Amino acid sequence: MADAAKQEPVVTMWSKEFTYDRWMKSKGIPIHRGYFIDDLRTIELEWWEERGCKSAFIQLLGQEGVTAARVSEIPPGKSLPPVKFALDEIVYVLSGRGLTTVWASEGKPKKNFEWQEHSMFLVPRNHWHIFSNMQGDKPIRVFHYSYMPMAMSALPEPDMYFNNPYEPKVTVSDGDFYSEAKMVQAKDADEGLGMRAFWYGNFFPDMRAWNKLDANERRGAGGKSVFMQFPNSELTAHMSVFAPKTYKKAHRHGPGRAIIIPAGEGYSIMWEEGKEKIVCPWHECSMITPPDKWFHQHFNAGGDMARYLALHPPMQFHGHAEKVEDRAKDQIEYPKEDPFVRQKFEEELAKRGIKSEMPAECYSNPDYEWSKAMGKQ
CB 3.0 to 4.6 Å from 270: which of 27, 80, 296, 342, for a disulfide? Predict the structure, then answer.
């Protein structure tokens, strides 16, 4: 006991460097930080011997200690070495066409499925998996998202998370894994944040073309959304689609989201209440993470529909703004927004030679019904 008492603690009290941070730094590959990533397809990667590929970590402001993000590159015509990861992981395809093979353990049936740019799928916890590049002429990139920082704070043993002999009780051989996701009706008004339905499955073939959406009038701009749930997992996501030359209402929630852009051109503004606003431009395969309780607002400054896909942190971190009854506290209606917001939007559109499609009435009437405006288009 005396010897143990002399040992320095692994983490000093109140430290904001977590076990995951130290593990991440130990790998010797790039760690991309900041407020946003301009293009996940072009960020710097370095060779990671353990994974047999080039890779990089991403830890934007607001992810620390909550969610993990990484980009991997698969060489032309090659397959990555098999790996078994103890946590559920969402994979989003940034470029190229490939194949994933998933199996629970030696002798168990294997599942093979093909994917393309902007596919999204789940690799279930405690399963072996291999990523293969079906293209022989160029590398492809995939994005990984998990709750590893939280897990490592509770169980700070890195070797427990990779190639552990534990066998899962629910495996890919049980049920209809990797068929296209199916619609499920919400059981009550609170489920799905007021949405009448959400989408349930392991595989979403193309988030650019996914049009099974429901009206989401809370955020303005006549936007539509779809919420996604992965079977036997607490991982969730949602995607919002909104019209060109419009923008959403400012809102805030908890930390840890990874917002990826499947399609569109625009920008987001983020700010901590009472402090300077930060403009984050985006286009296809950009990434944004709004920090904890920072207001943020999304603007479609292009001529086509814009899409943003939000991969969610654990429900414990969703924050008050996810509840409809908290709108007054955590959402800014158009009539009350900073004049800078509208001015900036009009300036950005003018650079592109286009004009705003925001109805004049929405700036004076907080109860403006967007469904009427969308009906006129």
Answer: 296
**Domain co-membership, 151 together with 187:** no
In a domain, 2, yes or no: no
* C-alpha count within 13 angstroms, C-beta hemisphere, residue 238: 21
Query: Which segments of 279-332 does DSSP mark as H helices, in order?
Result: 327-330
User: What DSSP string runs through 111-163?
Assistant: EEEEE-TT-EEEE-TTEEEEEEE--SSS-EEEEEEE-HHHHHHHS--GGGGBS
Domain containing 309 equals 182-376
Does residue 319 form part of some domain? yes
The CATH code of the domain that includes 304 is 2.60.120.10
**Same domain, residue pair 203 and 276:** yes
The SS3 of residue 270 is strand
Cα 180 off chain centre by: 19
Per-residue pLDDT of the chain (377 residues; tens, 9 = 90+): 445 444 555 666 667 789 999 999 999 999 999 999 999 999 999 999 999 999 999 999 999 999 999 999 999 999 999 999 999 999 999 999 999 999 998 888 899 999 999 999 999 999 999 999 999 999 999 999 999 999 999 999 999 999 999 988 888 877 678 877 777 776 654 444 455 567 888 999 999 987 766 555 565 555 677 888 898 899 999 998 989 999 999 999 999 999 999 999 999 999 999 899 999 999 999 999 999 999 999 999 999 999 999 999 998 887 655 444 455 678 899 999 999 999 999 999 999 999 999 999 999 988 888 765 554 44
Identify whether residues 32 and 68 lie together within a single domain. yes
**Structural domains of the chain, count:** 2
In a domain, 361, yes or no: yes
- The string of DSSP letters for 59-77 reads --TT-TTT-EEEEEEE-TT
Are 268 and 204 in the same domain? yes
List, in order, residues 6 or more apart from 103 with CB less than 8 Å away.
109, 110, 111, 127, 128, 129, 171, 172
β-strand pairing of 295-300 with 246-247: antiparallel
Residue count (the chain): 377
The total of other beta-carbon atoms located within 10 Å of residue 231's CB is 15
345: left (phi over 0), alpha (psi -120 to 50) or beta: alpha
Residues 20 and 154 in one domain: yes
